[in-house]
Amino acid sequence: MDSQASTEDLIACPHCDALQRLPELEVGQKAVCIQCDHTLSYSMHESLDRPLACAIAGLILLVLSLSFPFLAFEASGREQSIGLAQSALELSRYGSPILGIVSLAFIIVAPAVILIAVVALLGQLFLNRRPIAGKQLATLIFMLNPWAMVDVFFLGTLISLTKIAELAYLKTGTAFWSFLIFALVFAATMASLDKHTIWKRLESVNNV
Ligand SMILES: [Zn+2]
Known about the structure:
Bound molecules: zinc ion
Shape: elongated
Number of helices: 8
Order of helices and strands: HEEEEHEEHHHHEHH
Oligomer: single chain
Radius of gyration: 21 Å
CATH architecture of the largest domain: Up-down Bundle
Largest sheet: 3 strands, antiparallel
Number of strands: 7
Strand content: 5-15%
Distance between the termini: 23 Å
């Protein structure tokens, strides 16, 4: 029994696969792999305030990004503005329509679902409640995270813009700037969420 319980505590380093046990971490400490120095876990900031606040800010910014014009083009005296979702579709217009839908899923749907799940999970932990669907929410957050490609989209947009700017006069809309801040806030949210700390918090509240 004992040996089974102790093997369950072992985690494999995602970088070099070395099996090891995570030590208890104090606030501000991080655990690194014994073999390759890869960061395995870090203790979250004093509380869950930071990722929770970031996630709420991120959702507000995403709503703003979807409500205002993203870009406006002016050529031959005519101006046309397009929204964020339309920009994503336009960028993949020369690919297949499926590519457009997939890119929308990666830049809007996946990050939105992640942030809603973060607010739902951390909000419940913040209020010291035993989270409803806690494990499912945590699984969803970390499973979807690799599919949220907000930063990749932004880089792609900037590269396309340098080309479009040669053909038409370009204006960035309110949504462009709110989406840029959204990309930074989203990255900050995910950087301040530590998988092991979340699972430990869930285990401890479920065992109370
Ligand atoms: Zn390692």
